[in-house]
Write a structure and sequence with these properties.
By secondary structure, the protein is mostly beta strands. The protein has 2 domains: 129 residues, Fimbrillin-like (Immunoglobulin-like); 140 residues, Immunoglobulin-like. It contains 2 helices and 25 strands. The strands form 7 sheets. A 7-stranded mixed β-sheet has the order 2-10-9-7-3-4-5, with no helix packed on it. It has a 6-stranded mixed β-sheet with strand order 8-18-11-23-24-25, with no helix packed on it. Strands 17-12-20-21 form a 4-stranded antiparallel β-sheet, with no helix packed on it. Strand 14 and strand 15 form a beta hairpin. The radius of gyration is 29 Å and the shape is elongated. The N terminus and C terminus are likely disordered.
């Protein structure tokens, strides 16, 4: 038997092998569930919504409430700003990539600069800034703009999600649930029927019993924490222009005119929140327990119920319009 007689079966075997190889590759590409191993796919947004506690306005924006489940972001033209880290696999990081929601495009999010994911994993962060109040440093996940204590205004609210830390081509359609960078603190101030005189409140002061607040800080999306800023020993809300001072708080009608926005942060270690009202030029204080309030959590609206009594200031309760709709109550405590 010579070499020529061996050539035909050898070539036949070679062609069959090539055919099988092409068939295998074609079968992998036709599988809609997963791309071929390592093949990049464009990141897409499954859904975007605010946390249940971020959506705190009722039908009347002057009367805050909470709608369960959070608000889906599906307004035409809404934008999410995406950030992809290098990850363990060594992607080139991408910063502040705009994705726009389009009703004309079937309710999908699209970007002029798609982010591609392969088999390597990386974190993907999202920022929702409906009022264009946030700016970021060059090639950074840290804001260059700062957030501070102040009167609550919806136009200063913005939101982020940093929980998707292991995204690759097999899960490149994350559902974002965005938490507000601020916490909200509202006051329900009642005058006890036995309080003997007119009740005029000229100032509300917040302070930790030890340590300081952080104010005027930037936010690092990678940690969800404040960075930089200044130490604030106490925050004072001047109320001389409000009716709680100009006419005083009547015994039958509690005052709910003050609501603050506070950069989300924990209270200092071992600290409690002390609240002081200046009533008729005299300071009256009460301290919340850590069971009532241990931190100012993003997307949570706290309401502190205070009663001005002949003996001083009492904390009646603190409510959290949060995921659990929990209410924590403390009996009267005085300065």
């Amino acid at each position: 038997m010579n070499a020529r007689t061996l050539q035909k079966p050898t070539l036949c075997t070679l062609f069959c092998g090539i055919a099988l190889l092409f068939a295998a590759c074609g079968g992998e590409q036709d599988n809609p569930a997963y791309p071929p191993a390592g093949e990049p796919v464009a990141l897409s947004i499954g859904s975007a919504r605010l946390t249940a506690t971020a959506d705190t306005r009722g039908s009347d924006s002057s009367a805050p409430g909470t709608r369960a489940g959070g608000t889906v972001i599906n307004t035409d033209g809404a934008k999410l700003r995406l950030f992809r880290t290098a990850g363990a696999g060594g992607y080139d990081p991408m910063y502040d990539v705009a994705c726009t929601y389009s009703t004309a495009n079937g309710g999908k999010w699209t970007s002029e600069h798609p982010i591609y994911m392969d088999s390597r994993t990386a974190a993907v962060y999202a920022c929702y800034d409906p009022h264009n109040v946030v700016s970021f440093g060059t090639n950074s996940t840290t804001t260059s703009s700062t957030i501070s204590f102040g009167d609550y205004t919806d136009n200063d609210m913005w939101y982020f999600d940093n929980t998707h830390t292991a995204v690759n081509c097999t899960n490149a359609e994350p559902d974002f649930t965005l938490q507000c960078a601020y916490s909200r603190l509202a006051f329900h101030i009642a005058r006890d029927a036995e309080y003997p005189t007119v009740c005029k409140v000229s100032n509300i002061r917040l302070q930790p019993t030890t340590g300081t607040f952080t104010n005027g800080a930037k936010v690092d999306l990678s940690t969800g924490k404040l960075t930089g800023g200044t130490a604030l020993a106490a925050y004072n809300k001047d109320t001389k222009s409000l009716s709680m001072y100009t006419t005083g708080i009547p015994s039958a009608t509690p005052d709910e005119s003050v609501e603050l926005m506070i950069p989300a942060q924990d209270l200092p270690t071992s600290a409690q929140l002390k609240i002081t009202l200046n009533v008729n030029e005299v300071d009256h204080s009460a301290t919340l327990t850590t069971a009532q309030l241990a931190k100012f959590e993003g997307s949570v609206r706290y309401t502190v119920y205070l009663s001005i009594k002949p003996k001083g200031l009492a904390v009646e309760s603190v409510t959290l319009k949060a995921w659990t709709e929990a209410t924590t109550t403390l009996g009267p405590s005085f300065d």
